[in-house]
Amino acid sequence: MTSIVINIGNTNIRFGLFDDENCDVSWILNTKPYRTSDELQMQFMMMYQTHKINAGNIDKIIIGSVVPQLTYDITRAIQKIHGKKPVIVDRNTHSGVQPKSKQMGTDIYANLVSAHHLYPEGKKIIFDFGTALTASCIDETGETLGVIIAPGIITSLNSLIHDTAQLPEIELVKPKKVLGLDTVSCMQSGMVYGFLGMVEGFIDRINEEVEEDCFVVATGGVSHVYKPLTEKIHVADRLHTLKGLFYLGRDL
């Protein structure tokens, strides 16, 4: 079965082309500015052409969203392209995971579902480095143990730049030293090592609370920056959320 999986986030829309359970191709579009369904249709078709995807060969389209106002327009655009209705999944979609909250976002639920499928043994923590930084924890039975939501790295960086007169835009990369001597390296150190300290602190506190050394997965746009800097993160997988959406929608 060939599927297109779409994760509609607050910052980006990520697409994945799945051949059975393998995601062979993925790409990202910016969520803003909001576009009409006709504009979205044209943009999606351009991406399909770029990646040599024939819409007629797609068996299923699966959508998960945390942006309700975009879900309708994207659904309409997809229906026009494929001539079929996409499957919409959310926290109410049945799986082996117990969300335990009517407020849980689709992305967090998908992260838990993906971890439950891919790493069935023991307790897991999934860090999603997205618009918000989230940490969700699940045990081997599929029970959700809890979630943490903190300000996202890029969100915080943009706020810092916007609200100060003399701080420039920077690339989020590891600085050469912790203590910087110019504005850019000082900001890079604060954003990289500051948030790394937060993540490591969360891991330690969660492990203490659940009385186990959890397996830690990192996903989201800037997860690749933090994974090499700590042994506390075991796997970095940018497609982790997409995989969860695929598992939720494949049998619907």
Description:
Helix 1 (37-50) packs across helix 2 and helix 3 packs across helix 7 (240-249). The model has no long low-confidence stretch (mean pLDDT 95). The protein is of the alpha/beta class and 252 residues long. It has seven helices and ten strands. The chain has helices spanning 37-50, 68-82, 106-118, 153-162, 183-210, 223-226, 240-249, and strands spanning 2-8, 12-19, 22-30, 60-65, 87-89, 124-129, 132-138, 144-151, 215-219, 235-236. Its main location: cytoplasm. It holds the Pfam family Pan_kinase. The active site is at residue 107.
Please outline what is shown here.
The protein contains 7 helices and 10 strands. Helix content is 37%, strand content 24%.
Report the radius of gyration as a whole number of Å.
19 Å
The 3D shape can be described as: globular
Strand-residue proportion: 15-25%
Q: Compute the number of strand runs.
A: 10
Summed up, the helix count is: 7
**What percent of residues adopt helix (DSSP H or I)?**
25-40%
Largest sheet, spatial ordering of strands: 3-2-1-4-5
| Helix-strand topology string | EEEHEHEHEEEHHEHEH
User: Major β-sheet, in short?
Assistant: 5 strands, mixed
Spans of at least 5 consecutive residues whose pLDDT stays below 50 are none
Q: Provide the structure class.
A: alpha/beta
What is the first-to-last residue Cα distance?
13 Å
